Amino acid sequence: MIIEQFKDEFLAHYSYAVVSECEQEIILIDPSRNPEPYYEFAKKFEAKIIGVIETHPHADFVSSHLEIHQTTGATIYAHSLTGVSYPFSPFDEGDEISFGKIKLKSLHTPGHSPDSISIVLHHDGRDKAVFTGDTLFIGDCGRPDLRESVGNLQAKREDLAQKMYHSLRDKLMKLADEVIVYPAHGSGTLCGKALSTANSSTIGAEKISNWSLQEMTIEDFVKELTTDQPFIPKYFGFDVDLNRKGASEFSTGIDKVNVLVKPEQLNADILVVDARPENLFKEGYLPGAINIVYGKKFETWLGSIVKPGEQFYLTAANEEQLQELISRTASIGYETFIESAFVTESGDVIMPVMPLEYFITNPDEFTIIDVRNENEAKKKSIFKESLNIPLGELRERIKEIPAEKPIVVHCAGGSRSAAGSSIIAAEFGAKIPVYDLGGAVRDFNSTEK
What we know:
The chain is an alpha/beta fold. Helices cover 26% and strands 21% of the residues. One of its GO terms (biological process) is hydrogen sulfide metabolic process.
């Protein structure tokens, strides 16, 4: 028996292949949008992919379960409550899948969603591992507030938090201490708030270190779990519904993106997403462009700033990055929204250079916009007279920004303020200067200025 863990570092997502070496068969769990790594893995072992298990309809990435089924004939397994549109085999509480000497058992573990399952792997007469999806993470458990308005089954966060309390204690904590925990996400995901950087653990270790498995009343658990959760990107609900339907073929979606050598004329009504480094962007960009910098969080911020269904141009600094970003855009199901993609070297609009020394001595002469998340702003104030509008809400709340003074935009480290300042500049840039404080924000301490 072999368990192979795959990681999408950009979305902090883990997927798995369970291999029966004696039968040369594989079952996948929570696969990413691009199925090629799983096909290559199967070829390595000369094995056949016979099944794909979805622990729940994911909100933060698009799964390739339907494409794998259509390509290999593998059976898709999911809880019957999921209400899917694709052909599947129900995998409800107590159901089992046997292949070779391996047995996979379904546990219904609602909490992150009403239809969440965890999968216990039984081998050589004992439980060896549990694939916990978004129910139990290393150091945390799944957030309960993503199904209040999406999916076929909707539930209030308090109700799901109560279910999570029981799923953890009545199902997962009853497994043997030596059972290995394999979650669907690691540190960096927005599906939880305090995940460890570790990619696996054991039930016993989590009983000791994971806050959600400690002894407490259900009331205290619900309060803790529903407090200070991260923001919810715009694309999350879209991905839940897309995963319930099943996404189209990955490579076909990529090939359909209209890649231009050089755009002759752009539609001024269509948003331009410019992924070049902020310094290159500021030196010259296209009118109205938003600077979502090429980096580890590109797809998260793309899906937080651009709403599902909104067409946009995608541009990058070179062809290699452009192709990578098209694929990463597809990982959240946004490839069909790309009007066209192209490489940009410069543009006609220039962002003014931040007058840092004058700002330090005269902060009252500026309107300061803090684009950090609300929780961040509450915990650590950087400038006393600042207006907090989280980056994911900025386009919708742009009219709340006063236009009487020059505007300075900041975040915690510089990447979000690049996007925020470009959004604000698209609205105010012709009237008043808009500046990005950028990485200089690190020079300001945590005391209020």
